[in-house]
Amino acid sequence: MRITVVHSHAPRQLWLRELDLDSGATVREALAASGLLDAFPTLDLGACTVAVWGQRAQPTQRLREGDRVEVCRPLKVDPKVARRERFRAQGMRTAGLFAHAKAPKKN
């Protein structure tokens, strides 16, 4: 069966390998066969999230034909914290749901 393994080691950088594996192969077997750890010897798979088509996957999960195994690097900043900081920097009037709302007309 045909499987794709992808990893983004840096912003806008994509490492991609297409593999032909036996039917019933697992995520762990796909990662081993892809050569990911040979290409990135400092990569800690324990710190990364592994997903199949964007859904978190366990190493023992069985793969199906055409699956895409994604190795996601850890976040540098918590998205909630980043959003709060952007909001604080922009101010209440220029950010949020009503930033571009027009003032009501007076009759």
In short:
The protein has a domain of 71 residues: Beta-grasp domain (Ubiquitin-like (UB roll)). The protein is 22% helix and 26% strand.
Protein described:
The mean pLDDT is 85. The longest helix has 12 residues, at 79-90. This protein is α+β, with helices and mostly antiparallel strands and 107 residues long. The chain has 3 helices and 5 strands. It has a 5-stranded mixed beta sheet with strand order 2-1-5-3-4, with helices on one face. The protein has a domain at 2-72: Beta-grasp domain (Ubiquitin-like (UB roll), Roll). 13% of the residues are buried.
Order of helices and strands: EEHHEEEH
Number of helices: 3
CATH fold type of the domain at 2-72: Ubiquitin-like (UB roll)
| Superfamily (CATH H level) name of the domain at 2-72 | Beta-grasp domain
Main sheet summary: 5 strands, mixed
Strand order of the largest sheet: 2-1-5-3-4
The second-level CATH architecture of the domain at 2-72 is Roll
Which structural class matches the secondary elements?
alpha+beta
CATH class wording of the domain at 2-72: Alpha Beta
Low-confidence stretches: none
- Taken from the alpha-carbon principal axes, the silhouette is elongated
Rg measurement, Å = 21 Å
Work out the number of β strands.
5
Spatial separation of the terminal alpha carbons: 69 Å
Please indicate the percent range of residues in DSSP E strands (runs of 2 or more).
25-35%
Helical coverage, percent range: 10-25%
Average pLDDT figure: 85
